[in-house]
Amino acid sequence: MDDAEKKGGKINSMRTNGKRVVTRLNEIYQCGKKEDGTYTRMAFSAEDIKGRKLFASWAQELGMNVRMDEGGNLIARMDGQNNDLPAILMGSHLDTVPDGGKYDGVLGCVGALEVCETFKAEGYIPKHPIEVIVFTDEEGFRFGKGLTGSSAVCGRDAGIQDSESDIYGEERGHVMQSYGITSEGVKNAARDPESVYCFVELHVEQGARLYRTNTSIGVVSSIAGVNRYEITVAGEANHAGSTAMADRRDALVAAAGFINKVPEVTTEYGNEFTVATVGTIKVTPHSVNVIPGTCTFSLEIRDTDAEVMSLVEQKLQETLGDICKSYGVSYTFVPTSFHEPAPMSEWVKENIVNAVKELGIDYCVIPSGAFHDSLIMTSVFRTAMIFVPSEKGISHSRYEYTKDEDVENGCNVLLQTILNIDRD
Ligand code: GLV
Ligand code: MN
Ligand code: MN
């Protein structure tokens, strides 16, 4: 490629192969096939490892150097013209929620590899080395905490211990042996901030803003913060047949009274983006003929404004207190994890916007309600995200779908963004 081509002509006409990306999304999806008829690649599972191996084989076929760091992150590296320069990072995650879809996370990994494959096919050698990263356990449903690999890369405490158990009662230390990593070792995956030029993540929106407005690309302004709590309501376990209604202190009935109020309080004190969810619940002693003595459930609050999150937390806690008082039960309200809302890098966003304009694709700037590895990555590295539409806003579901042309647009925007950044 001569200088004239590098400046304009050839590199501005470089395009990814959308068909190959869609085929690969399907191939990774197939790796999650389970006996119960679902497709699930839970982090550290046999299905997850199958998907990672397939992904690694594609990167190796491209001549990329593939390694796994101590955080279990899979990293495929392509040499640049000057390997002393910091690496441009792209990527996302391959693990899924139970019965998840084809696109969440996978698009960001397969799309990133497609950019490398296009560079190779075009004989384009970037100035910077390029790394495609598949983060460890982004979803976190198994142990109730995700973003494990990205936290490790950023040198942040992932809050994990080998002794903790997952929802199936399996110990983390044992579970993580499938990657050959330990909770202690994960800390060694922290990257020197100087070794990374920036991070760009392509992802499906998982909401309906792009779909409803018929917009092709979303440039993410910020990622909503996520605060989680464990609430336990304590009443009195007693006989379900012989305890009169007036004499009961039913923990589940009190909890239900609160849970029923969550949407109303969140809508009153939040804004159009604020969401709050009770996603798990358990009672003791969990018997058909015993009035529940305790009820423990999760509460999660998300918003792009930390002050709004605090206000909603305060109002929900007050509501819980009032309701528990009226039922004569007590409660505890324990914070379990906090992630501040995270604005994306202006500089990376600008490169994405320029790329979209150069490609003549329509776009808008939107916040992300879902969290992503970029939520953590932005605390250390210049980071931004590219969204493509999710049909009807459906995600974390087998019905998750993004049109092939949107997949292709997303990959081309990622490609053009990396070209712009590399030339910067
Ligand atoms: C991750 O997908 C989340 O937003 O919960
Ligand atoms: Mn995701
Ligand atoms: Mn997800």
Description:
This protein has 424 residues and is of the alpha+beta class. The protein has 2 domains: 3-223 and 341-423, Zn peptidases (Aminopeptidase); 225-339, Alpha-Beta Plaits (2-Layer Sandwich), CATH 3.30.70. The protein is built from 13 helices and 16 strands. Helix 3 (18-30) packs antiparallel against helix 4 and helix 3 (18-30) packs across helix 13. The model is unreliable at 1-8 (pLDDT under 50). Bound molecules: glyoxylic acid and manganese (II) ion (2 copies).
Question: What portion of residues belong to β-strands?
Answer: 15-25%
What string, H for helix and E for strand, traces the elements in order? HHHHEEEHEHHEHEEEHEEEEHEEHEHEH
How many domain modules? 2
Distance between the termini: 19 Å
Helix content: 25-40%
Mean model confidence by pLDDT:
96
Strand elements, count:
16
The assigned CATH architecture of the largest domain is 3-Layer(aba) Sandwich
CATH class call of the largest domain? Alpha Beta
Low-confidence stretches: 1-8
Largest sheet: 9 strands, mixed
Total number of helical segments? 13
Structural class: alpha+beta
* Name given to the CATH homologous superfamily of the largest domain: Zn peptidases
Which ligands does the model contain, each kind named once?
glyoxylic acid, manganese (II) ion
What is the CATH topology assignment of the largest domain?
Answer: Aminopeptidase
Q: What characteristic shape results from the CA principal axes?
A: elongated
Alpha carbon gyration radius = 23 Å
